[in-house]
Write a structure and sequence with these properties.
Length: 247
């Protein structure tokens, strides 16, 4: 049994509760969220139909015809008591994705600016990004859109002051120690540092959403010519990405 602090349980609409573990995405909070989400998925509380996580909380949506909010809260609290939420490392991933990317140049117009902000050289910044063992911390903002991190402290760079009117679908963007691969052309305040051909969400694909919270992500360098080929011939929308099932 764990003696770590229990999550704050909050109502969320008519059929949901929020298990809040913090107010900011500190490494310890991110780890606790991932551990708690995995525990909820494994236990599958009665009447709960959806489990999702953000960087600081876990959301449970239940069927009011099958259970009550009080029952879900009691079960969630019991599950939380049975896991160690004070751990500082993330639980082992169930899937590992390798996603090809072009960094910088015309495909990453803010890459040089991001490199200067981190204090790295161009080469060192590329090494960090390509060697990082990122995790999908949450899926949100748009269907299939992954928030991935956490990068080292040097990458805790704030968003831009002004919004970029539109970055293309599959753009790799960075801010606050995290990376996103956009699923659609999108305005953003994050820095556009690279480009993939990876579509995290594609109607008609099974499953339509490729990534899940907790997945490990590794970036793999490719050339602009490789990218052009994948953009031209990309029937599954995965842009050359490969998935390993780990458990």
């Amino acid at each position: 049994m764990s003696d770590s602090p229990l999550p704050e349980i909050l109502p969320h609409g008519a059929d949901g509760i929020l298990l809040r573990l913090g107010l900011s995405a500190r490494e310890s909070t991110v780890a606790a969220v991932q551990i708690l989400r995995a525990a909820m998925e494994d236990a599958c509380p009665h009447g709960v139909e959806e489990i999702a996580s953000s960087l600081t909380s876990v959301y449970l949506r239940f069927d009011p015809a099958r259970t009550t909010r009080a029952e879900v809260c009691a079960t969630a609290q019991s599950i939380a008591r049975g896991v160690d939420l004070s751990a500082t490392t993330l639980p082992a991933p169930r899937h590992r994705w390798t996603i090809p990317v072009v960094l910088g140049g015309e495909h990453g117009p803010h890459f040089d600016e991001m490199v200067r902000a981190t204090g790295h050289s161009d080469q060192r910044a590329r090494e960090v990004l390509l060697s990082a063992r990122l995790r999908v911390l949450a899926i949100g903002f748009a269907p299939g859109l992954p928030y991935m991190g956490l990068l080292p402290e040097a990458w805790d760079v704030p968003r831009l002051r002004d919004v970029t009117p539109k970055v293309p679908a599959c753009a790799l963007v960075a801010a606050v120690r995290q990376l996103i691969i956009f699923t659609n052309p999108t305005p953003t305040g994050w820095r556009h540092i690279g480009q993939t051909a990876f579509h995290g969400f594609q109607v008609g694909r099974d499953p339509a959403t490729a990534l899940s919270a907790g997945d490990e992500i590794r970036l793999e360098q490719m050339t602009p010519a490789d990218l052009h080929g994948l953009q031209t011939d990309n029937p599954d929308g995965l842009g050359g990405a490969r998935c390993e099932v780990l458990s």
